[in-house]
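Project outcomes to date are best conveyed with an example. Our students and postdoctoral researchers have been running inverse folding experiments weekly, and each run begins with a structure described purely in tokens. The record below, which covers 57 residues, was selected by the lab manager from last quarter's runs and is presented without edits.
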């Protein structure tokens, strides 16, 4: 049990924990931006295809 407590103390003192959290937050923000961009592009592409289909019929 002492070995586990020492490893927890070592993790809390080290800088690796906060760095990993920062990277996770950045990754989450990038994913949100990508999903918003894909959604917007998809909606506009669908509208354009619908308009072209209307002209062809």
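After processing, the design step wrote out the following sequence:
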């Amino acid at each position: 049990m002492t070995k586990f407590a020492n490893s927890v103390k070592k993790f809390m003192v080290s800088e690796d924990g906060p760095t990993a959290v920062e990277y996770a937050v950045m990754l989450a923000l990038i994913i949100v931006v990508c999903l918003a961009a894909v959604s917007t592009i998809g909606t506009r592409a669908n509208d354009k295809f619908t308009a072209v289909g209307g002209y062809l019929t």
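The chain has two helices and no strands. The longest helix spans residues 16-56. The training component of this project remains on track.
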